[in-house]
Amino acid sequence: MRQYLLYGLTYLLAISCSALLATQAFAGEPLPVRIGYLGYTPEVGPLLSNVIAEPTDAGLRGAELAITDSNSTGRFVKHEYSLQAATADTPEKLLAAAQQLHAQGLRLFVVNAPADTLRQLSAALSDSLLFNAGAYDDELRVSNCANNVLHTLPSRAMLADALVQFLVLRQWQKALLIVGAKPADRAYAAALRRAAKRFGVKIIAEKPWSFDNDQRRSAQADMPLFTQASDYDVVLVADEAGDFGEYVPFNTWLPRPVAGTQGLVPMGWHKTVETYGAAQLQKRFELYAKRWMNDRDFAAWMAVRSIASAVTQLKNTEPMAIRALALSPDLPLDGFKGRKLSFRLWDGQLRQPIPLVQPRALVSTSPQDGFLHPFSELDSLGLDEPESSCRLSASAH
Q: What was the pLDDT predicted at 48?
């Protein structure tokens, strides 16, 4: 009986303390948390595949949902989150819009834009904190890293490492690499080469895609001949825009799996991710946006939620204080991926598992079992500290 009385007293004390804290929180002035969203997606031109168009509001809808989620918890401590979005059809217009938001006092931004535009924005908004939710470029995490930018979108190196780890697990040791003509394709191919060398997969041949015909009509004739090579276990495709890659599966000279930007694809997020509470996030997003959540939506959602988690601890919105907390071990983040997520100290990249998906199924998730790391298995994906010349901690404000 005495034990139950002590338990009851402890419970009542806990409730009283919670009520007191809640009363104190509501007694103060509301804390406005104003976040800017900057979106620019350049025209990619006519695609030869032209199968499924990308949503024009990718990223923005994820940020908006995260504002709603943050307000649902923030109201208990009188934190009021709001999003001011600016989208533009040129980098110049987006920069002007960003400067206008900055003049209105905004210092926290989620950016969905190519690397060049992101660099311009980070220089123009030097006293602000930017979250990269739109650029995969490895150079942003290596030689051209900006002190005021954190990355919630995975890098190409992370995606390539996630894929090649799976190839090693399946003992697909020999690969044929097909590379598209665009700069992004060459960058993706470079990430695949690096990952293959890192984990011991041999690229037995590399072929640049130079056809300009419509593969909808000629894939069965072109692809088998184009993919002739000595024996290979898998075909790796680097075609980010989807000009030809959709027609590689089932049309290769040898009956082999296809992976990379088509076939088995490593992604930051996908509809088929459902475990660890992800199904609830997927449903809430689909109810709100009337479409599936993609990797840029998730990156923007994660950026806003990172800000909210930091503000909850700090009880202020000072951008460099949020940055310092994000780069410390004291801000574990929940991203519905089965592990606590965190930002890497040296390059500001969000550590996160990478789903490997086909269009309607989750095949696996990297890091794969057996790929170890002295600090975190998540650091087996992407550029590890010794591989990167970026040192954000050394140049902190």
A: 58
Q: What's the sign of the alpha-carbon dihedral 59, 125, 120, 268?
A: negative
Provide the domain limits for residue 117: 31-154+270-354+391-395
Q: State yes or no: pLDDT of 177 exceeds 70.
A: yes
Question: Does residue 16 sit within a domain?
Answer: no
Q: Are the CB atoms for 343 and 322 separated by under 8 Å?
A: no
- Same structural domain for residues 108 and 256? no
- Do 132 and 188 fall into the same domain? no
Q: Is the dihedral of CA 388, 166, 47, 208 positive or negative?
A: positive
- Count of the separate structural domains present in the chain: 2
Q: Is 244 found in the same domain as 275?
A: no
Residue 107 counted as domain residue = yes
Q: Does residue 293 fall inside a structural domain? A: yes
Q: Which residue has the tokens 């086909």?
A: 358
SS (H, E, C) 343-366: ECCCCCEEECCEEEEECCEEEEEE
Q: Is 129 in the same domain as 169? A: no
Host H or E run for residue 368: none
Give me the amino acid identity at 238: A
CATH of the domain at 53: 3.40.50.2300
pLDDT at 104: 97
Instruction: Write out the E strands in the chain.
Output: 31-39, 79-87, 108-112, 129-132, 149-151, 174-179, 202-208, 234-238, 258-260, 265-266, 333-334, 340-343, 350-351, 354-358, 361-366
Residues near 375 by beta carbon (within 8 Å), at least 6 away in sequence? none
pLDDT at residue 298, as a whole number: 98
Q: What is the pLDDT of residues 62-93, one digit of tens each?
A: 999 999 999 999 999 999 999 999 999 999 99
Q: Do you know the residue count of the chain?
A: 397
Residue 150 near residue 323 (C-beta atoms within 8 A): yes
Instruction: Looking at the structure, tell me whether residues 275 and 341 fall in a common domain.
Output: yes
Residue 282 is predicted with a pLDDT of 97
Helix (H) or strand (E) holding 28: none
Contact (CB, 8 A) for 109 and 83: no
